[in-house]
Each structure stands twice: as C-alpha cells, then as structure tokens.
Design goal:
globular, alpha/beta, binds NADPH dihydro-nicotinamide-adenine-dinucleotide phosphate, single chain, about 15% strand
C-alpha cells in the first residue's frame, strides 16, 4: 500500500485546462498527494490564484499561459516544466470545450474550435511531452475523453462526440505505439460532471436542455480527479487503460 501511495509523490504533472472544473480539481488532488504541478490554461489569473494556494499549503506549482490550439504554446509549456522541475512525468490532457447544437444549425466556427481544442490540443500535448518521456523511459499521458466518446451524443453533440471518439482512438493508438517504452496511456471517460463546460452552447434551445440534463445528473468534479489520481498512483508496470464513470442517475 505504501509503495502505491509513494508512486505519486514528487512526480511532475502538467494539467491542461487547470483554470476550472475537472482540471482545477485534478491539480488540487495531485498537489495534495505530493506531485509538483504545472497549471496550463488561458485564464492565468485563476491559475496564479491556485498556484498561490498550493504553495501556501507547502506544495510546488507553477502556472503557464497556454492555448492548447497553438502547438507552440504546448512546446513552451513543456520547456517551462523542464526548466522549473527538471522532468515531465505526467500530462493530463484535460482542456476541452463543448459548444453543442444540431449539425443543421451549421455552427461551423464552433465545430472548428471544438476540433482545435479537443483533438489538436490533445495531439499537440502528446507531441510536446512524448520524446522526453520516451527518453526518460517513463511517463504517463492521461487523456480526458467522455461518455460522448462511447455513444454519439445525438442530436446536439455529434461534433463534440466526434472529437471525443478521436481522443479515444488517439489514446488507444498511442498506447500500442509506445509499447514497452515505459510510457503509460490512460483514457478517462466521464459522464455529467459539474463544471463550466455545460455553459458553452450558444444555441438557446440546446443550452436549456443541456442545463436541465446537468441539473438532474451532475456529480462533483473531484469524482474525475480521484480517477486520475488512481491511474497515476499505480505501480510503474501497471497501466490503467480506461476509466468510465457516470453519475448513478445518468442513463446516456
Ligand atoms: P470547464 O469548462 O470547467 O473547463 C475547461 C477548461 O479547459 C478550462 O480550464 C479552460 O481554461 C480550458 N480550455 C478551454 N479552451 C482552451 C484552450 N484553447 N487552451 C487552453 N485551455 C483551454 O470544463 P470541464 O472541467 O468539465 O472540462 C474538462 C474536460 O473534461 C474537457 O475535455 C471536457 O470535454 C471533459 N469532460 C467534461 C465532462 C463534464 O460533464 N463536465 C464530461 C466528460 C468530459 P481557459 O478558458 O482558462 O483557457
């Protein structure tokens, strides 16, 4: 048991989308278990506040302004992490957006943004850390997918689902490709979790139905944070490949 608990202390963990929701909660949990955390997102005021809290509690943390749709930002994030802490043990690819609407509303700009953040952001994150993790002979990439990556979220979430199916495909392909390199890959697929994500839909009818669905079902963000910690804390030879977690009340 002690060995499992110690497998998180001192690890250097990057969390994207750390300014809110699942990412913020994951950072808190990792820091509480002794990880050195690197907080990435665009709203740096929020990141700095959380960094100050973690330091106040005796932890180690830095904030790095990052737009995951820009590859150069992810490269800078990885470089800043190595400069501060000397290595990268964990990347939680968590940043995501969910502007929902039926396809026939043709919100093409929102499709672009969803793909840029939810798919390209994950790939750019992988690109920024994988060479270093392979060279170290260890590392862990945790990709936050969704229940919507297991079932197509019709009729409002087809594009969002497409991005989350992609996250699962990328994760599974990566897991096989990295083989015996010591790099672990985990997919976490949550159901409805309380965060700001549900507020992202510009289509009024969709926004109303999404809010009602969340009000009826949502569970706290730390449900997911605990799953991420459980994956990270496993002994080096154990790769927890997939976690699927829903509110008990959620059928979808
Ligand atoms: P929130 O909206 O609360 O948080 C999203 C986070 O992503 C914020 O920190 C935001 O930071 C960040 N983000 C958005 N766009 C960018 C960008 N271009 N560059 C960097 N960061 C960005 O949502 P959640 O916490 O719920 O979402 C986290 C992940 O969990 C997402 O991938 C989501 O799809 C997934 N998920 C959530 C579920 C839920 O019900 N809540 C269910 C299943 C999966 P900032 O705006 O400061 O950049």
């Amino acid at each position: 048991m002690t060995q499992v608990q110690d497998n998180i202390r001192g690890k250097v963990a990057i969390v994207t989308g750390a300014s809110s929701g699942l990412g913020e909660s994951t950072v808190r949990h990792l820091a509480a278990r002794g990880a050195k955390v690197v907080l990435a997102a665009r709203r740096t005021d929020r990141l700095e506040k959380l960094v100050a809290e973690i330091r106040q509690a005796g932890g180690q943390a830095i904030a790095v302004a990052t737009d995951v749709s820009k590859r150069a930002d992810l490269e800078k994030l990885a470089a800043a992490t190595v400069e501060a802490f000397g290595r990268i043990d964990v990347l939680v690819n968590n940043a995501g957006v969910m502007p929902l609407s039926p396809i026939e509303k043709l919100k093409v700009d929102e499709w672009d943004r969803t793909i840029d953040v939810n798919i390209k952001g994950v790939l750019y994150g992988i690109a920024a850390v994988l060479p270093r993790m392979k060279a170290q002979g260890s590392g862990h990439i945790v990709n936050i997918a969704s229940i919507a990556g297991l079932k197509v979220f019709t009729p409002i979430g087809t594009v969002y689902s497409a991005t989350k199916y992609a996250v699962r495909a990328i994760s599974e392909g990566l897991r096989v490709e990295v083989g015996n390199s010591g790099v672990r890959v985990t997919i976490v697929s949550p159901g409805a979790v309380e965060s700001e994500l549900k507020l992202g839909s510009s289509d009024p009818e969709t926004a109303a139905s999404v809010n009602a669905f969340y009000d009826a079902n949502q569970i706290p963000a730390d449900s997911v944070a605990r799953a991420v910690v459980y994956a990270v804390v496993q002994p080096a030879e154990v790769d927890l490949n997939q976690v699927v977690l829903r509110p008990v009340s959620q059928e979808f």
